[in-house]
């Protein structure tokens, strides 16, 4: 029997019938992570986005529950890196112009995640929509959040600020993803019926947007690709802890 890395208590056994597909969305790399502009030049920020995506996906896809993962992006570099890492790539849908109230509205991220969900609907899998910038995510955290989610319906993991969303979990057939990522998305997901999950999962909750976020992630332990980008950029990684 395995134990929880955070509590030391026995972890729930894997449900042999559980099958999970992970979806991630990445915007165009041009202008990516602008809040890191004073610390990293544009080319390094683009490298960091790709590295964090692949480290996030690696942690999730290492779960015995996960049977596949998809990346939706308009950026050819991201699509190529994801495909080479084993992802199914999904083209980002065109922006709706005639009906701004359509599912996802004019929000490209939400439209992209909905498209990825639609691509696997009907295949008997649950879906976890993850933020693509969780370099300190661990497989144990991913598993724990999925198991804590409501067995039929939507559950949400708020990010470390309590405002954003780092994961949206959909379990059960016929349940729509209904992503509402963006400002105050955690509260909007809860208002739309998603159950807020309260587990202590620091890597899962730490989406990286600022220099402070990078420092926190390094302190927790980031994936190899993220560490390599930061090291090559001269970021002070100090006594970096390996991600467990």
What does this structure look like?
By secondary structure, this protein is of the alpha/beta class. 34% of the residues lie in helices and 16% in strands. It has eight helices and seven strands. Strands 3-2-1-4-6-5-7 form a seven-stranded mixed beta sheet, sandwiched between helices. Helix 1 runs antiparallel to helix 8. Its EC number is 2.7.7.105. This is Phosphoenolpyruvate guanylyltransferase. Belongs to the CofC family.
Physical arrangement of strands within the biggest beta sheet: 3-2-1-4-6-5-7
**Total number of helical segments?**
8
Distance between the termini: 18 Å
Series of secondary-structure elements, N-terminal to C-terminal? EHEHEHEHEEHEHHH
Count the E strands. Answer: 7
Pick out the low-confidence regions: 1-14, 97-106
CATH first level? Alpha Beta
Number of domains: 1
Protein name: Phosphoenolpyruvate guanylyltransferase
Family: Belongs to the CofC family.
InterPro entries: CofC (IPR002835), Nucleotide-diphossugar_trans (IPR029044)
EC number: 2.7.7.105
Summarize the structure.
The protein has 244 residues and is of the alpha/beta class. Helices cover 34% and strands 16% of the residues. α2 links the parallel β2 and β3.
């Amino acid at each position: 029997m395995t134990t929880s890395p955070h509590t030391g208590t026995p972890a729930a056994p894997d449900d042999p019938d559980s099958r999970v597909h992970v979806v991630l969305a990445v915007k165009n790399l041009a202008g990516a992570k602008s809040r890191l502009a004073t610390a990293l030049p544009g080319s390094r920020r683009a490298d960091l986005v790709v590295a964090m995506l692949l480290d996030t996906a690696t942690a999730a896809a290492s779960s015995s529950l996960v049977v596949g993962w998809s990346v939706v992006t308009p950026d050819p570099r991201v699509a190529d890196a994801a495909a080479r890492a084993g992802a199914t790539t999904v083209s980002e849908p065109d922006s709706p112009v005639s009906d701004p109230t359509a599912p996802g509205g004019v929000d490209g991220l939400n439209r992209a995640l909905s498209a990825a969900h639609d691509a696997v609907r009907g295949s008997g899998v649950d879906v976890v929509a993850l933020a693509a910038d969780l370099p300190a995510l661990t497989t144990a955290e991913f598993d724990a959040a999925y198991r804590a989610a409501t067995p039929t319906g939507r559950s949400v993991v708020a990010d470390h600020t309590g405002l954003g969303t780092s994961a949206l979990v959909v379990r059960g057939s016929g349940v729509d993803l209904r992503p509402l990522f963006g400002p105050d998305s955690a509260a909007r997901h809860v208002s739309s019926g998603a159950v807020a999950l309260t587990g202590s999962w620091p890597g899962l909750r730490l989406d990286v947007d600022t220099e402070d976020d990078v420092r926190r992630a390094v302190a927790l332990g980031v994936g190899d690709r993220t560490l390599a980008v930061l090291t090559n950029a001269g970021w002070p990684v100090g006594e970096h802890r390996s991600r467990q």
